[in-house]
Amino acid sequence: MKQELKQTFDKPASTVIKMFGDRQYFERKYAELGFKNVQVLEHDKKGDQFTIRVRYTAKADVALPDFAKKFVPAEMTITQRDSWDMAKKVGQLEVELAGLPLKVGAAMRLVDSGKGSTNTIAWEIKCSVPLVGGKLEKLLMSDIEAKADADLAASRKILADY
């Protein structure tokens, strides 16, 4: 399943990319979102390349139908890796959901737009479970969409400090 989401900011891409390349941004954002057990597992910044891998615990923001409860725990352990080419303002997002048969990733592109900037996130979700895989993909995309507004609000709040 593929889905594209957009985040808009009131500051130029050159400012937003500084935030996206800052470890403290991720720590603050996850705290703001109320995620538990946040651990930075990896953090690297060399030249224009930035990578961070963080593990945290979060609850699904969508009601789980009966078939999904067999696959999806009430609280998920998530490992997320963000990597950015700071000069080109393009990035990759990889998400691992512990114990779930889903592969989740996204390509990101940050550009100036109007008086601010836009980050386009092209999500791709794949599930290897026969028969219910498509339903699990849609369920996860619904959860991503449900979290998107809070994620954007937290990012905009933190952006004020850059």
CATH-assigned fold name = Alpha-D-Glucose-1,6-Bisphosphate, Chain A, domain 4
- Tell me about the largest β-sheet: 7 strands, antiparallel
Question: What is the average per-residue confidence, as pLDDT, rounded to a whole number?
Answer: 92
Q: Number of helical runs? A: 4
Distance between the termini: 35 Å
Helix content: 25-40%
Secondary-structure-derived class: alpha+beta
Strand order of the largest sheet: 1-7-6-5-4-3-2
Radius of gyration: 16 Å
Give the helices and strands, then pairings.
Layout: E1 2-9, H1 13-20, H2 23-32, E2 36-46, E3 49-59, H3 66-69, E4 75-85, E5 90-97, E6 102-113, E7 116-127, H4 133-159
Antiparallel strand pairs: 1-7, 2-3, 3-4, 4-5, 5-6, 6-7
Helix pairs in contact: 2-4
InterPro entries: DUF2505 (IPR019639)
Organism: Solimonas marina
Pfam families: DUF2505
Structure, described:
The protein is α+β, with helices and mostly antiparallel strands and 162 residues long. The chain has a single domain, classed as Alpha-D-Glucose-1,6-Bisphosphate, Chain A, domain 4, CATH 3.30.530.20. It has four helices and seven strands. Strands 1-7-6-5-4-3-2 form a seven-stranded antiparallel sheet. Helix 2 (23-32) packs across helix 4 (133-159). The N and C termini lie far apart (35 Å). The model has no long low-confidence stretch (mean pLDDT 92). This is DUF2505 domain-containing protein. It holds the Pfam family DUF2505. It comes from Solimonas marina. InterPro entries: DUF2505 (IPR019639).
